[in-house]
Write a structure and sequence with these properties.
This protein is mainly alpha-helical and 96 residues long. Helices cover 65% and strands 4% of the residues. It has four helices and two strands, in the order H-H-E-H-E-H. The chain has a two-stranded antiparallel sheet with strand order 1-2. The N and C termini lie far apart (43 Å).
């Protein structure tokens, strides 16, 4: 792994932890935050700090919601877009 790859992947992985909350609410078996970070870091196959549609093919919830999450329409999910979806989910959960 390149030294900069970890620097790029770490912020993305941290942002994606918010997505874990969504996964937790929809499944019985709740993955740990560490497991989610690891899975999403592995999904960033080209290590560019973004998740492209092809990189989320094995992540059904992200695949299904890709177009909604990709608010700028650039064909990839950024840290900010994933944080936004995580915040929306938290707000919905707090309102229940």
């Amino acid at each position: 792994m390149k030294p900069n790859a970890l620097v790029v992947r770490t912020p993305l992985a941290a942002a994606l932890v918010a997505v874990a909350v969504l996964a937790q609410a929809q499944t019985q078996a709740v993955p740990s935050a560490e497991q989610v970070v690891q899975r999403l870091a592995e999904a960033d196959a080209n290590h560019d700090g973004y998740l492209e549609r092809s990189e989320v093919a094995d992540l059904p919830r992200l695949k299904r919601g890709f177009d909604r999450i990709d608010t700028d329409g650039d064909g990839r999910l950024s840290k900010a877009e994933l944080q936004a979806v995580g915040q929306k989910f938290k707000q919905r959960q707090a309102g229940q």
